[in-house]
Amino acid sequence: MSLGQIYARIWDCLAAAVREDSQPFKVMQAATIGLDGSPNVRTVLLRSANEVGNRLTFHTDLRSPKIAELTREPRIALVGCDPVHNLQVRIYGKTRILRDGQARIDAWRTSPDHDLIVYRTRLPPGTRMSHSGDAFDAAHGIPGPDEGLKHFGVVELRPARLDWLDLSENQRALFVRDGDSWTHSWIAP
Ligand SMILES: Cc1cc2nc3c(=O)[nH]c(=O)nc-3n(C[C@H](O)[C@H](O)[C@H](O)COP(=O)(O)O)c2cc1C
After folding, report:
1. Phi-psi sector, 94: left (phi>0), alpha (psi -120 to 50), beta
2. pLDDT digits (tens, 9 = 90+) for 113-151
3. Which domains does the chain have, with CATH numbers?
4. How far is CA 5 from the centre of its chain?
5. Strand, helix or coil at 115?
6. Is 4 strand, coil or helix?
7. How far is the CA of 44 from the centre of ligand 1 (A)?
8. Among candidate residues 184, 189, 188, the one with its CA nearest the CA of residue 7
9. Which of 66, 70, 152, 188, CA to CA, is 20 to 30 A from 43?
């Protein structure tokens, strides 16, 4: 594969992950710098990928520790892995947290209801509890359509660097954002 083909494949893989939950790059690990300076990492689901606009998004709870971390240091690294095809993609860039606005409302309204349950907890993520169900109200009926919306945020990432590794081909490629375009180079695997 040429560097141009690899670049196109990366965005194809990301777009496929947005469309289909079963795609390997749907589930990514997102690394931030903790408030105490130590690394922190967690799983997130890729929700949108826009090559032309150079934007990716995932959803999160605005009360979660990663929001405080990204507010202090907006740089993030994502890594995704396709173990069947021996592929890895690493994505580095700066984030912006969408706490209001139409894009966030649209993301909320188009999310399946079971994905929204976590935003309806009365306790912020990470709060210590006596019992596993304590985060939810005891008398919980059918939630209103926007119940939990105030906790829902979209994290937008503008990639500055894409690092692609294909272990089956022993090929590794680096794409660095330069203004509105990308520089492409091979790097040692
Ligand atoms: C399969 C899977 C998918 C997840 N997707 C997300 C996600 O899209 N957004 C998110 O904030 N947390 C997601 N989580 C939970 C996070 O990994 C993490 O536990 C939570 O967000 C708290 O992270 P924090 O304490 O670093 O803020 C997911 C967890 C799993 C197991």
Report:
1. beta
2. 999 999 999 999 999 999 988 888 776 667 788 999 999
3. 3-187 (2.30.110.10)
4. 24
5. helix
6. helix
7. 5
8. 184
9. 188
Q: Which residues line ligand 1 (CB under 6 A)?
A: 27, 40, 42-45, 58-61, 64-66, 125-126
User: Closest Cα partner for 84 from 170, 172, 167?
Assistant: 167
CA of 71 to the centre of ligand 1 (A): 17
Tokens for 104, please give them.
């966030």
Residue nearest atom 26 in ligand 1 by C-alpha distance: 66
Predicted pLDDT of residue 51:
98
**Residues counted in the chain:** 189
- Degrees, nearest 5: CA angle 155-53-32: 30
Cα angle 81, 86, 91 (rounded to 5 degrees) comes to 35
Query: What ligand 1 atom has the least distance to the C-alpha of 126?
Result: 25
Compute, in angstroms, the gap from residue 165 CA to the centroid of ligand 1.
25
Whether the CB-CB separation of 94 and 32 falls below 8 Å is answered with no
Ligand 1 centroid to 21 CA: how many Å?
A: 15
How many CA atoms does the CB half-sphere of 95 hold within 13 Å?
Answer: 30
Secondary element (H or E) of residue 177: strand 171-178
The one-letter code for the residue type at 10 is: I
Distance 138 CA to ligand 1 centre (A): 24
